[in-house]
């Protein structure tokens, strides 16, 4: 089971946080800080595993990858394979890259909701559901279309009613 | 018109980015105020935008959003998909079991689960999988069950994913959904199988036994599937099942090795290695292959693979040391790797390789390496040396003199924080290994006289051990005076009082030892008793006679050791010139006897006491344990500093002493050492009657005191009854370790009771429910299953399917049980057999009950 997915920039600012267990915001913030504290002290050419039991409790493992200004972190338990989780980070980043065409940190900052759509396409309730970038993107685009459609529907009558009420 | 002027999420993001850190909190509170206003709007567009902003702030800036839970529910009930989506994200991010309005979403979830739009269904499923409570899971189980048969893969796999939450929260859901779940295992590479296998992997981690009957299904997937994700999960399931069913291993080893050889995916290779080295250790060929693959990992440049390789070896190490030895070069080389994970893992392996023959060399190298390492790794090294060396009562150590000096050396490493561990080992070795005591005292002396160590709080515990050792084994000391000075140096004020207590205690022991040896010396030259000597003694004895007990003067912090030591060498003051010769003689005899009693008390050897020894002492019926122990503080204070003149040593003997002969002295030696402490105890009892047991008889304490306030020394005999002492003695005598072939000193060892008692683990109630339900299903407890089902149409269908499934299970189980039959070489034919026609199934189903009964 995956416990959490975090994207943190090298300044320690969160860009995406997802906790699959229910946690209070203070706790989330504390975990994020501890994770960043460990990550920023690690050199670049070392392994991608971090001892996580002191932060997330027993049976937790953490893998991360460092891309440009961002750390991508997955926290999980013994039901997952470490290397597979690293692959999953790869899948996530590749999908982002395809979706945003050369993803940068700014895309991550301004596309909060799309980011969640993509992540939710990959991981469902802590379980890996889809690992094909193409499939994920297809679903996310469908969702975007639906959102746009529902927005335009809701906007028209609203403006009209707005005019009438004047 | 709200919408036109409302700031969207992008505006907020931009706004936050433009703030300085000083103005950020002002900006944030303004934005939240704005959100609070907007979210109350009746216009859903305004409301949902506000909610979206809040959700963003919650997840990125950790702003509380629990107050908005009702508004989130309003948003999911909007007909517009975009509002729904924002609402669901907010709910799964902020709701918990204790959210008061959580039950209100039940109806909306049901509506969305039934929606024709697959993305709406997906939203609802996702929400349920994240926040599903007992009530929600119970209410929506049947909807999820329907979705498990959805024609859309996109929905079906998510419905299967939700089942995990359903089972966890509402175990009765098993009766509805389990058969469907098992059916979904068919096929081998669809996303559905991937989802189901994932669910079973989680379920079997909690309660593997219930899923043992499904082993044939998993086996088929293991053989057929090409999907690495699925294979990894199946391997994880088998690791859980293999210990429960010994026949499994035989069947599994071949396909797993096959995957290991063929696959190019490192993740799968590693999972295969891990499976083999944890579960199939007795299959030599598989182990060899795994070791080969590990070697490949170690040769890679990728630090991840190297780390995992080392990790896999360390799983093998306890039973298959050859795997470590084969890779010795890499392991040792990795010790200086820049990667902390790799360093740690290789340190573990280096210690695993340590044996009697190479331990000294290994430790020497490691200690030198620790000196150069960063503080954290330095302490990791020290910790692993300490834990390796003390394994099985110092099994690997032959030369204890060397080990004790190593402990001393380790204490002096500047970054050392292992004071407590070293403390325990110093005392432990002192008690267990007689032959090492001279060296131990020497090391302890070196530690004590080093004023630098007093400044490091991590080493205080260690110093208390050193002090204790010096006091206890002072007879091996070359220069007790020096020890005395070390124990009473002014800088001891840096120590916490609990450790100073040990210092004082040891100082007293040393003092007694010195006086005692003086008397012995004197006895030797009785003929030439000089005036000076008797006067000297007079000073000591008169102290005693006037009730100023030695103990008391020892506990007085102002006590000056030099004075007493000087009295040992020079003529003392002339205060006592007035005493008559006769007086002197008598006083001297008393003094020498008192000193001897105390000395005898101290020279009684302390041995290790079994941890279960206390349990073997029956608890007296009258014993009432006072619950509130805070009053104990006062008593402990009293122990440390008894009131002056509070006890008298002399009274019982004073009158008789004149007629004591030497033989008399010898006779009473056995009983008397305890008298001194008894009187101490009597006094204590007088003052704190309340905490004593009424019976007077068996309360004579052990004839020695361990450090009074030293919680970690395993010799808390201060209140031990004679029974306890006897018990410990017996176990010591009978369980001495046979002498080693080499001249290894005897190490006192208690066979029983050193290991922690095994605590039987109780399974959780919830898992019980779940496994019970699954057992019912697998055993075909149809009546029960059907009764708990709400939907009649479901009932019949699931019943039918259930039966069919049982046949399959049984059928394939038999295949598995038969063992070596080459059935699986042709999986397709086997599968077609599985899907045989109804007649075949019904025939088989008759034998179902028996079959299942036999299996269990």
Automatic annotation (TrEMBL), chain A:
Keyword entries, A-Z: Membrane, Protein transport, Transport
Major site of localization recorded for this protein: membrane
Cell compartments where the protein resides: Endomembrane system
Signal peptide: none
Record field: transmembrane: none
Limits of the AP complex mu/sigma subunit domain: 1-146
Keyword Protein transport among record annotations: yes
Gene3D superfamilies the UniProt entry points to: 3.30.450.60
Similarity-based family: Belongs to the adaptor complexes small subunit family.
Name used for this protein in its record: AP complex subunit sigma
Automatic annotation (TrEMBL), chain B:
Location of this chain's protein in the cell: Endomembrane system; Golgi apparatus
Gene3D superfamilies with a match to the protein in the record: Leucine-rich Repeat Variant (1.25.10.10)
InterPro entries in alphabetical order: AP3_complex_dsu, ARM-like, ARM-type_fold, Clathrin/coatomer_adapt-like_N
Main location group: membrane
Boundaries of every Clathrin/coatomer adaptor adaptin-like N-terminal domain copy: 32-503
Residue ranges, annotated region (Disordered): 664-718, 782-856
Keywords from the UniProt entry: Golgi apparatus, Membrane, Protein transport, Repeat, Transport
Subunit structure, interactors included: Adaptor protein complex 3 (AP-3) is a heterotetramer.
Function noted in UniProt: Part of the AP-3 complex, an adaptor-related complex which seems to be clathrin-associated. The complex is associated with the Golgi region as well as more peripheral structures. It facilitates the budding of vesicles from the Golgi membrane and may be directly involved in trafficking to the vacuole. It also function in maintaining the identity of lytic vacuoles and in regulating the transition between storage and lytic vacuoles.
Family: Belongs to the adaptor complexes large subunit family.
Protein name from the UniProt record: AP-3 complex subunit delta
Annotated organism of origin: Salix suchowensis
């Amino acid at each position: 089971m995956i416990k959490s997915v975090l994207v943190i920039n090298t300044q320690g600012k969160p860009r995406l946080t997802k906790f699959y267990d229910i946690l209070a915001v203070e706790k989330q913030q504390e975990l994020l800080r501890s994770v960043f504290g460990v990550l920023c002290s690690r050199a670049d050419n070392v392994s991608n595993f971090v001892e996580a039991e002191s932060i997330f409790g027993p049976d937790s493992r953490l893998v991360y990858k460092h891309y440009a200004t961002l750390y991508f972190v997955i926290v999980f338990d013994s039901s997952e394979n470490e290397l597979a989780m690293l692959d999953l980070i790869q899948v996530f980043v590749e999908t982002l890259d395809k979706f945003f065409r050369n993803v940068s940190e700014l895309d991550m900052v301004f596309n909060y909701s799309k980011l969640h759509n993509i992540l939710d396409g990959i991981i469902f309730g802590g379980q890996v559901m889809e690992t094909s970038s193409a499939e994920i993107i297809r679903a996310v685009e469908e969702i975007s279309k639906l959102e746009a459609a529902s927005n335009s529907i809701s906007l028209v009558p609203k403006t009209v009613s707005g005019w009438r009420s004047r | 018109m709200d919408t036109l002027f409302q700031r969207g999420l992008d505006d907020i993001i931009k706004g936050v980015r433009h703030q300085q850190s000083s103005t950020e909190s002002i900006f944030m509170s303004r934005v939240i105020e704005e959100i609070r206003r907007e979210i109350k709007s009746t216009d859903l567009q305004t409301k949902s935008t506000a909610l979206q902003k809040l959700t963003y702030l919650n997840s990125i800036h950790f702003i509380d959003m629990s107050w908005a839970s009702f508004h989130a529910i309003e948003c999911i009930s909007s007909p517009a998909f975009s509002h729904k989506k924002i609402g669901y994200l907010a709910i799964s991010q902020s709701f918990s079991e204790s959210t008061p309005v959580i039950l209100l979403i039940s109806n909306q979830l049901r509506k969305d689960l039934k929606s024709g739009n697959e993305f709406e269904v997906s939203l609802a499923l996702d929400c349920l999988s994240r926040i599903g409570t007992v009530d929600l899971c119970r209410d929506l189980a049947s909807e999820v069950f329907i979705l498990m048969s959805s024609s859309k893969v996109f929905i079906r796999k998510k419905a299967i994913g939700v089942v995990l939450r359903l089972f966890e929260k509402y175990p009765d859901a098993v009766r509805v959904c389990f058969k469907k779940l098992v059916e979904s295992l068919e096929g081998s590479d669809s996303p559905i199988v991937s989802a189901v296998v994932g669910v079973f992997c989680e379920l079997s981690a909690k309660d593997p036994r219930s899923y043992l009957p499904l082993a044939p299904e998993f086996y088929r997937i293991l053989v057929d599937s090409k999907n690495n994700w699925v294979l990894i999960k199946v391997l994880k399931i088998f690791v859980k099942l293999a210990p429960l069913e010994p026949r499994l291993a035989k069947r599994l080893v071949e396909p797993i090795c096959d995957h290991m050889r063929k696959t190019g995916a490192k993740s799968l290779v590693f999972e295969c290695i891990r499976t083999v080295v944890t579960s199939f250790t007795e299959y030599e060929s598989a182990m060899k292959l795994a070791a080969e693959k590990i070697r490949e990992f170690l040769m890679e440049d990728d630090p991840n693979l190297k780390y995992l390789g080392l990790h896999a070896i360390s799983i093998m190490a306890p039973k298959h040391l050859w795997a470590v030895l084969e890779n010795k070069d890499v392991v040792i080389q990795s010790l200086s790797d820049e990667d902390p994970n790799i360093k740690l893992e290789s340190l573990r392996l280096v210690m695993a390789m340590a044996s009697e023959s190479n331990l000294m060399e290994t430790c020497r190298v490691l200690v030198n390496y620790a000196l150069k390492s960063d503080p954290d790794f330095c302490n990791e090294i020290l910790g692993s040396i300490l834990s390796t060396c003390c394994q099985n009562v110092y099994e690997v150590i032959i030369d204890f003199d060397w080990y004790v000096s190593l402990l001393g050396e380790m204490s002096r490493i500047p970054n050392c924080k292992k004071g407590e561990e070293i403390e325990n080992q110093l005392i432990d070795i002192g008690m267990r290994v007689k032959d090492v005591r001279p060296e131990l005292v020497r090391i302890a002396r070196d530690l004590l006289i080093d004023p630098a160590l007093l400044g490091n709080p991590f080493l205080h515990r260690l110093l208390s051990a050193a002090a204790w050792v010096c006091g206890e084994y002072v007879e091996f000391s070359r220069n007790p005076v020096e020890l005395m000075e070390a124990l009473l140096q002014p800088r001891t004020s840096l120590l916490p009082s609990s450790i100073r207590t040990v210092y004082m205690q040891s100082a007293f022991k040393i003092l007694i030892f010195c006086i005692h040896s003086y008397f012995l010396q004197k006895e030797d030259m009785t003929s030439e008793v000089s005036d000076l000597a008797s006067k000297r003694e007079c000073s000591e004895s008169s102290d005693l006679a006037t009730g100023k007990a030695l103990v008391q003067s020892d506990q007085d912090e102002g006590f000056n050791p030099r004075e007493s030591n000087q009295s040992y060498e020079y003529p003392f003051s002339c205060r006592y010139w007035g005493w008559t010769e006769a007086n002197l003689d008598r006083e001297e005899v008393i003094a020498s006897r008192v000193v001897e009693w105390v000395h005898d008390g101290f020279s009684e050897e302390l041995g290790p006491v079994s941890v279960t020894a206390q349990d073997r002492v029956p608890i007296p019926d009258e014993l009432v344990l006072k619950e509130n122990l805070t009053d104990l503080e006062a008593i402990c204070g009293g122990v440390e500093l008894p009131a002056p003149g509070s006890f008298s040593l002399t009274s019982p003997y004073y009158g008789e002493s004149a007629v004591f002969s030497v033989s008399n002295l010898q006779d009473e030696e056995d009983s008397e050492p305890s008298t001194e402490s008894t009187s101490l105890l009597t006094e204590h009892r007088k003052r704190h009657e309340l905490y004593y047991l009424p019976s007077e008889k068996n309360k004579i304490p052990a004839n020695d005191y361990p450090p009074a306030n030293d919680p970690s020394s395993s010799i808390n005999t201060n209140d031990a009854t004679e029974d306890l002492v006897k018990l410990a003695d017996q176990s010591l005598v009978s369980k001495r370790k046979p002498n080693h072939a080499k001249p290894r000193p005897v190490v006192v060892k208690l066979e029983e009771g050193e290991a922690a008692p095994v605590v039987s683990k109780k399974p959780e109630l919830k898992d019980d429910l779940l496994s019970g339900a699954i057992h019912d299903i697998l055993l075909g407890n149809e009546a029960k299953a059907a009764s708990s089902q709400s939907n009649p149409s479901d009932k019949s269908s699931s019943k039918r399917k259930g039966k069919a499934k049982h046949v399959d299970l049984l059928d394939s189980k038999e295949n598995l049980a038969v063992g070596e039959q080459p059935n699986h070489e042709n999986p397709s034919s086997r599968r077609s057999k599985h899907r045989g026609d109804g007649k075949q199934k019904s025939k088989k189903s008759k034998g179902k009950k028996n079959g299942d009964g036999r299996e269990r």
